[in-house]
Structures are given as structure tokens and as C-alpha cells.
Amino acid sequence: MSGKVALITGGTSGIGRATAVAFARKGVKVVVTGRREKEGEETVALVRKAGGEGIFLRGDVSREADVKGWVDQAVAKYGRLNFAFNNAGVELLGSVTEMAEADIRRLLDVNVLGVLLSLKHEIPAILKSGGGAVVNTSSIAGLVAMGGVSVYAATKHAVVGITKATALEYAKQGVRVNAVAPAAIETEMLDRFAGSDAAKQSFAAAHPIGRIGTPAEIADPVVWLCSDEAAFITGQTLAIDGGWTAQ
Predict the structure, then answer these.
(1) What are the CA-CA distances from residue 180 to residues 37, 157, 159, 237 (Å)?
(2) Confidence class of residue 192 from pLDDT cuts 50, 70 and 90?
């Protein structure tokens, strides 16, 4: 993978940040994107500390001009794009009957439209670079029902469908498209989602493995899915969930 180029959306913290570092350790040049400049530059600093090379580009994944600009700048800077990790996402709790229209639209704009716009501009660049791989971030809420998060679950189910369909469209053209479906992972998002230490302990107990996962435990499979070791895998959603969906 050394010398290749990866673009990561939602790379300012958590899983995105850990994946940027994991790519860097494989010699992949990393383009980190997101809305928070300070945190994005912190991710790039960690990439360089790991011996890698990278840049941060600020923007919003739900805006097509921003997404196109990221891809164009990645190719202008490094001459190619081989991998993409579409990880940007937001979480807003509440059932469909409780949620404000603005919140529903925000979830759809970031979690669904953001993935579609990313794929729209990443795939042509990857094709021009000779092929490669894309990984999208879904969730266990995209695989099984979860009460109280119906709109969020809808967006993550959508990511699974988008992944399957896009994988079929480009399978013969040398672009593989897969997804990961994490359970509870030790991130800022989980802190917001849980709201308290007691709730986090409850989440931990709900995993058959008996604990919450770490960002690195998602990052390493993402990098693997992009590697030649996963060359016969496309259209799949890998549950990385401590056994949650096996129950």
C-alpha cells in the first residue's frame, strides 16, 4: 500500500483519526477532511508522528462543492487517489415522531447524502488512478433494529444499501466498495450518545465480549478492506461489534 493515497471524511477524531494513523503506518499518504480545523490538524500531526504524510482540508461532507474540492486537491497534491474512507457522520437521538424536521434533514444530509456525494467524486478519481477501494461507515444500527433512534437507523441502513449497489456497479471496473458496522466505540460520539458513565457501562454490558471497542479496532479492518488481502471482497458490511449482532 506504500505510496498510495487515501481520503478520509470525518477524520478529525475517533475512528477517522485512528484510520488516518493506521493508513500512515502502511505508507499511505492521507488526506484528512472535516469541519473542525484544529482537530484536523491534530490528526495530521499524528499521521506525521507515525511516519506518514498528510494534509487537512476543511469543509462539510453534505456540500458537493466541498467534497469535489477535497478530491480535486488530493489528486493535485499527490497525483492519485486509491482509497477512500467515508466516515463522516452525525448522531441525533429520538424516534421519528419526536424529531424536528431540521434534525431529520441534518441526519440525512450528512449520513446519506454525504456518502453519496463522496462516492460520486471519489470513484472517478480512483478509476483514473487504476482502481482501488472504498469503505463506508455504517453502524450496528444499520444491521439490526434499535428503538429510539429510528431516523439514525434509517440513515445507517441506507449506507448498507448504497454500499451493495455501488459495489455491483463498479466491481468489474476495479473499484471495491465495502462498509464497516461498528457497535459502541470509545469516541466523542459515544460520549454524546450515552450521556453518562452509567449509560456507557450499560452499553459495555450489552456486548457479548463485555466491553466497548476502541477506534483502532475499527481502523485496522478498514485498512485491511482496502488492501490486496481483501481483493475478493466487495459489497459487504463487516460488523465489528463485539458480538452484538450475533445475539
Answers:
(1) 26, 12, 10, 5
(2) confident
Asked if the 5-183+214-240 domain carries CATH number 3.90.1570.30, the reply is no
How far apart (Å, rounded) are the C-alpha atoms in residues 91 and 153?
10
The model's pLDDT over 106-134, given as tens digits with 9 standing for 90+, comes to 999 999 999 999 999 999 999 999 999 99
78 assigned to active site:
no
Of 22, 154, 180, nearest to 96 (Cα)?
Answer: 154
What count of Cα atoms within 13 Å lies in the side-chain half-sphere of residue 79? 2
Active-site residue identified among 83, 152, 203, 244? 152
Residue-wise pLDDT for 58-113, tens only, equals 999 999 999 999 999 999 999 999 999 999 999 888 889 999 999 999 999 999 99
